[in-house]
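Trying the structure run again after the queue cleared.
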Amino acid sequence: MDSRLYRTGLVLLVTILGASTIQAQQVSDSQRWRDSLTVLNRQIAESQWSTDLHLRKATANLELKQWEYAIDEYALVLQHEPRNPAALFYRAYANTHLRRFDLARNDLNDLLIMFPSHFEGRLSLAVVLQQQGHHQDALDQLNQAIEQHADSAVAYAARANLERVMKQDESALYDWQRAEELSPRDPIYVVSHVDLLLVLERREEARRVLDAAVRRGIPRGMLQEWYQKTKR
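Done. Tokens:
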């Protein structure tokens, strides 16, 4: 789980040929990870305890979406190293995929007690809390993430997404603007900002946001769909 899990709003257009290429690449990657898993299993069987080998095996399990196997590997690591941050974080990641939010929340809380400035851990906890319906607690976590990492566009974007869910539209608009300022060439933040302005029927303001994005170097063609929406 990383910061990309909190980025929404970008529509990717691919040709049929491109989609076929992507599918072929996914098959290739899957086989590569299966081959890696075979090698790692043999190395683990032939060697004494190695945290690195078990973490690498768990990574392969995650890539293959073998959530239960990954959780078992991280549990083994934590038996040997209870303070291992990677094992805590990625076990929470796997449990989140299985919608075991209480277990994920426990691991993330333990992680943040030991490593209070762990950025991905705090964002992940906010996601888990939001999934459980604890929106204010999630917002508190994101506020703290921004206090600790004030230069992170991702943190502002994550808070904007939650504020929109909570109907705090003006706060969300501010956070989208901050995300754009911190990552001025990223179209994700632009279209998310514009989308909210359009929902609020603020079309002229939305167009100004688009124009500013084009001046910053984002290709106008990438934003053309949104320009059209400002005319309706």
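The chain has a mean pLDDT of 87. Worth checking whether this holds up in the mutant runs.
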